[in-house]
Amino acid sequence: MFDAESLTYDANGLIPAIAQSPEGEVLMLAWMNAEAVRRTLATGKVTYWSRSRQDYWVKGETSGHHQRLIEMRVDCDRDTLLVIVDQAGPACHTNRRSCFYRAVRDGGEVEIMSPMAGA
Amino acid sequence: MFDAESLTYDANGLIPAIAQSPEGEVLMLAWMNAEAVRRTLATGKVTYWSRSRQDYWVKGETSGHHQRLIEMRVDCDRDTLLVIVDQAGPACHTNRRSCFYRAVRDGGEVEIMSPMAGA
């Protein structure tokens, strides 16, 4: 049986979770505590712990941009999660598909992704 | 100009960096401080800060499994990096291509990736 307590959490009780689409796009990184891990697995709705709000954050609950869990993966050190997700619309609060929309090129920073139309 | 000091580091002066292959495979997550970010960009050799050794860690320096930087990306909150890398052989110290080789399936944990042959 998978036990959320078997993961390694940081001093704040949190573990980073990378969200990736089945097509391979890294969408975002956010944080979970053990209860958020359990809720994500139990409900299939990817649930983070919001460090700014200090509360559970069911992704998409207010924005409508849900993340449905396809599979949760655990790394070798058990201190990072990779969640493969079916992402509705943009993952980023800027309405971009991914939060990683800036690239360092030629010593400067450039935007490589535009906000999604109608998102 | 891109300035490593413009990123948001945690209380330990670190920022998580997700390493991904150009084909889309998430290989690992490790940590950088501002100087590791600068060294990575300056040398093209992906350089982390080892929290266990409390020292710089040029990926592959001892294992030979180098990571050559293809592109560094910055997320919306500037508190996570995504590095697209050319990974020589396995990224994981277990000789697996990726550190995320365990999946939670049917309530249990299964290995979904074997160590690389000859790695």
Describe the structure.
Chains A, B: Pfam families: PRA-CH. Chains A, B: One of its GO terms (cellular component) is cytoplasm. Chains A, B: It is found in: Cytoplasm. Chains A, B: One of its GO terms (biological process) is L-histidine biosynthetic process. Chains A, B: Mg(2+) binds at residues 75, 77, 79. 2 copies of one chain form a homodimer. The first copy, chain A, is mostly beta strands and 119 residues long. The first copy, chain A, has a single domain (4-89), classed as Ubiquitin-like (UB roll) (Roll). The first copy, chain A, has 1 helix and 8 strands, in the order ββαββββββ. Chain A has one helix spanning 34-43; strands spanning 15-20, 26-32, 47-50, 55-58, 67-74, 81-87, 102-105, 108-111. Chain A is globular, with a radius of gyration of 15 Å. The model of chain A has no long low-confidence stretch (mean pLDDT 97).
